[in-house]
Amino acid sequence: MRLLVPVTIVVWVAVEATLLVRDAARGKGSTAKDRGTRSFLVVMCLFAFVAASAIAAWLRNDSQFRLGSGHLAIGVAFMWLGLALRVWAVVVLGSSFRTTVEVDAAQAVVDSGPYRWIRHPSYTGMLMIAAGYGVAIGNWLALTVLLVIPTAAVLRRIAVEEATLADVLGPPYVAYQHHTKRLLPGLY
Q1: Where do the domains of the chain lie, and which CATH numbers do they carry?
Q2: What CA–CA distance (Å, rounded) separates 130 from 173?
Q3: CA dist 2 to 56, 69, 133, Å?
Q4: Which one of 3, 124, 157, 161 is least enclosed by Cβ atoms within 10 Å?
């Protein structure tokens, strides 16, 4: 079971690399409107994963930071659910999905699949992967790092992305914002 944690991370990295290659092959991926958010998100997530791993290793014998039994299976399951949600979001958005903030003026507002419940399911999936990793490594402090740092980076990215979507897509996107939550169905 422990082997599933690094396997899941390798699969996730492969999915992300595939998205970058897809953008490049289609001539997409311009960072002109991105305001550095893609790089910031990658750096902050990488930092959070490394820091959490170091914390868990450093405190592995400290029982006050340990999660209860079953944490490994729960964490791995949560990571795979997050990965599945991220991939589902990419598939539903299709050619409109980019790793940077780019919106085509003729692009339609997508409100099917996971987008019917939340505006940013791919980021929710990413945050689920991070949280799942924190649960899988079994340390409360590491889990906190993996919840706070990636979430802060994602919220910065969402602010930039939503401003661009509202600007380019106009009233249809603004109306969509009013009836869907950002990351958690019915909550936020």
Answers
A1: 4-21+36-98+108-179 (1.20.120.1630)
A2: 28
A3: 14, 14, 11
A4: 3
What local confidence, expressed as pLDDT, does residue 8 receive? 96
Helices then strands (H, E): number in the chain?
6, 0
Task: In whole angstroms, give the CA distance from residue 47 to residue 59.
Answer: 18
- SS3 of residue 94 by DSSP: helix
Q: Which residues are within 8 A (CB) of 13 and not within 5 positions of it... i.e. 6 or more apart?
A: none
Which pLDDT tens digit goes with each residue over 74-122?
Answer: 999 999 999 999 999 999 999 899 999 988 888 899 999 999 999 999 9
Q: Rounded distance, CA 147 to CA 183, Å?
A: 13
Does residue 60 contact residue 173 with C-beta atoms inside 8 Å?
no
Q: How far apart are the first and last CA of the chain?
A: 33
Q: Residue 28's pLDDT is what?
A: 84
The residues with which 66 forms a beta bridge, in sequence order, are 139
Average pLDDT score over the chain: 93
How many Cα atoms are found within 13 Å in the side-chain-facing hemisphere of 169? 20
Q: Which two tokens stand for residue 113?
A: 């699949």
Joined tokens for residue 55: 């914390």
DSSP 135-177: HHHTBHHHHHHHHHHHHHHHHHHHHHHHHHHHHHH-HHHHHHH
Residue type, 27: G
